[in-house]
Amino acid sequence: MCGPRSEHNERRATDGRLASIACLVSLYMFPTRSFILCMLVSSVSSAHYMYPIRVRFPNIRTGLTQWMTVGYMPFIKPGHAPTRADRRKLRMQRDELLQRCLAVLCDRLITASKDGFLVRLQQQSDEVLAVPRVVLYAADHPEERHVLGLKLNGCLFPCSQCLVNKTEQSCPGAVCTERPVLYTLEMQMEAALLYDRGCSGGRLNQIAATTCALPFVPVLGAFHGLGTGTLGLYKVFGFDLLHVRSNCSCLSGE
């Protein structure tokens, strides 16, 4: 999506007008779970399940938008692991694959969210500086937790936006404290390092108990505006009405 870094830096250094001629590129992301069967050409016939990742760039002037497929995500079937340790290992592999696919897809976009990139608009004769921002990630609650690197089950704080204990979610007047973005990301980085080194299981359990964090760093946290600035990492997710937890004060507006 963005041009070469050298050309971009040169234009920014020599063209002072870019400071006043700039635009914000909004980005909607929608990984759909409608599986596509892909046959692999090999010596042994086989097939893999994948689902596409689509994005949309809203245009506030024309109102014309269109979903574009920008990549595909492999799907690992849950299967029936014989032991609890095998099931946990399979879940970790699925979460790691998800983060790696997002990292490959968003690598240049993450860089562009910091430095911007040059585009030529129909109404402008000169190139302008465009800065992309992720403003919506459409997903249900389970996928949101996987993308954010948070535990889905067996945790004290099932809401991704706040730290209301699960025993107080249905209680009127429950204190709603926002989940700290930077602190959670730091805990996930520490947990990822410990998990890769295969040490300090007690510390991993402590991090999981206090923050519901898995030993993965969410790729979305690298986007400017989500892990920096307004820290909107936990606020960009959109739900279908069937998946909204209406008993959580931060979602119901209480």
Tell me the layout of helices and strands.
Elements (H helix, E strand, L loop, with lengths): L4 H10 L7 E10 L4 E5 L5 E11 L11 E7 L9 H32 L1 E3 L8 E11 L2 H8 L32 H17 L3 H11 L25 E2 L10 H4 L2
Parallel strand pairs: 1-6, 6-7
Antiparallel strand pairs: 1-3, 2-3, 3-4, 5-6
Helix pairs in contact: 4-5
How would you characterize the overall build of this protein?
This protein is α/β, with parallel strands linked by helices and 254 residues long. The chain has a domain at 1-138. It has six helices and seven strands. Strands 1, 2, 3, 4, 5, 6 and 7 form a seven-stranded mixed beta sheet that branches. Strand 2 and strand 3 form a beta hairpin. The longest helix is centred in the middle third of the chain and has 32 residues, at 84-115. The relative contact order is 0.14. Mean pLDDT is 77; it is low at 1-20 and 34-46.
Assembly level: single chain
| Poorly predicted residue ranges | 1-20, 34-46
Give the C-alpha Rg. Answer: 21 Å
Helix content: 25-40%
In percent, how much strand structure appears in the residues?
15-25%
Mean pLDDT: 77
Question: Number of helical segments?
Answer: 6
SSE order? HEEEEHEEHHHEH
- Global outline: globular
Largest sheet: 7 strands, mixed
User: Which structural category fits the helices and strands?
Assistant: alpha/beta
The beta-strand count equals 7
Distance between the termini: 40 Å
